[in-house]
Write a structure and sequence with these properties.
alpha+beta, 5-stranded mixed β-sheet
Length: 91
């Protein structure tokens, strides 16, 4: 079954137009590595040069913001859902 990753519209070009991907990984870091392995360019869109999640990217695991969980070391298990949500600016 794996991890279900919901891909936002701006990143779908990297995912071949897919809005949902099924990835394996024991934690969010492994999930991002698996995404990068299958769809190059994901890591640089999600993580900054220090390897941390970019400020303007929000990632949720089963509806919980990973910044309030364990960040990139947030554990994942089969059946979990990861949602990538780019921040929206306006004014």
């Amino acid at each position: 079954m794996g991890i279900k990753v919901r891909v936002p519209t701006p990143l779908r070009t990297l995912a071949g137009g897919q809005d949902i991907l099924h990835i394996e990984g024991d934690d969010l870091q492994q999930c991002i590595s698996a995404l990068e392995g299958q769809f190059p360019g994901f890591r640089e869109r999600l993580c900054d040069e220090t390897g941390e999640i970019r400020r303007f990217v929000n990632i949720y695991v089963n509806g919980e913001d990973v910044r309030f969980l364990s960040g990139l070391t947030t554990p994942l298990q089969s059946g979990d859902e990861v949602s990538i949500v780019p921040a929206v600016a306006g004014g």
